[in-house]
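User: For my dataset I need records formatted as: sequence, then structure tokens, nothing else. Please produce one.
Assistant:
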Amino acid sequence: MDHLLSIFNGISRPFSINKTKNLKNCDGREAVEAMAKDAKKNELILITSGTVNVDRSQNSASVFSKRGQKGLNQDCCIVWEEFGCQEDMMFCGIFDGHGPWGHFVAKRVRESMPSSLLRNWQETLIEASLDPDFDLESDRNAHKFNIWKHSYLKTYAAIDHELEQHRKIDSFNSGTTASTIVRQGELIFIANVGDSRSVLATMSETGNLEPVQLTLDFKPNLPQEAERIIQCKGRVFCLQDEPGVHRLWLPDEESPGLAMSRAFGDYCVKNFGLVSVPEVTQRHITSEDQFVVLATDGVWDVISNEEAVEIVSSTAERAKSAKCLVKFAVNSWKTKRKEIAMDDISAIVLFFHSSSSSLCDQVYPSLSLSSPN
């Protein structure tokens, strides 16, 4: 038991002595709930537009969301600094709901995801430590990835099952994407479902910032996705007035026309190829890696990866970087898609290194971009 409790030394560190004793005597769910409550009290969890920048951490994050022209804003975000009460960890998640209940689904997933993931991570870590062949010190990064991957897969499956059973949220024809990142020290673990996207900005050998797309946009026409859908009797095709927009359809009905192949919810097509299984990857963060942008398709439909990196890099104040990116997306919708109702637009920018200055003068000295009001 002492060996198992030692695993959580870092987790319980920020709590008072009494709280730590209580944590050791309660189950995983209660411990995680206590951590979340404490994080909210100390303003370490952000679920609205704003910034997170803890003095003792190198992490800083800028968040901004703007409602589109289709009704309620179905996008939502979360940033949890000192995730799991560990100073070197942060959780970021962005969710894009769709369908009549999409805003409820997205918020429910945002509410459930961090705590569920943290609890599963703790349990997986304990299970691994009980394996006599487990040696965290040998190939440490590989072990960390396997533990986080297992935790993510378990979490996404559990959340999707809970949504289906939820008494107050109708997810039969509604769902949400989920693009999430956990930073643990110099590693980031990325999990993605749907077509929200995460893009890394890294310095090239020539001294220019370059984008590295960390996630796939899970569209129904991707070969591996289309194959699964067809095997499950679902259909993939474009409508005549939407050339190039591939959608997922039921075998014998012209519905639901879902423009993604993975999502939480949408149980009307869960038996016909739609899944909620995330793609889980990792990356080692170096001094060349500057920040990562997590954004809903309201950004990526009108702004390229290169443009997103350029816009963030050219923003004078980090705290305004997400707002600046969203503002440029709004303007791009007005010029590039003026005949289409603007989608909800949301972004998180997670910076990896503490700095009070912008990269603008170093990377894009000739670029003239006005800051948002």
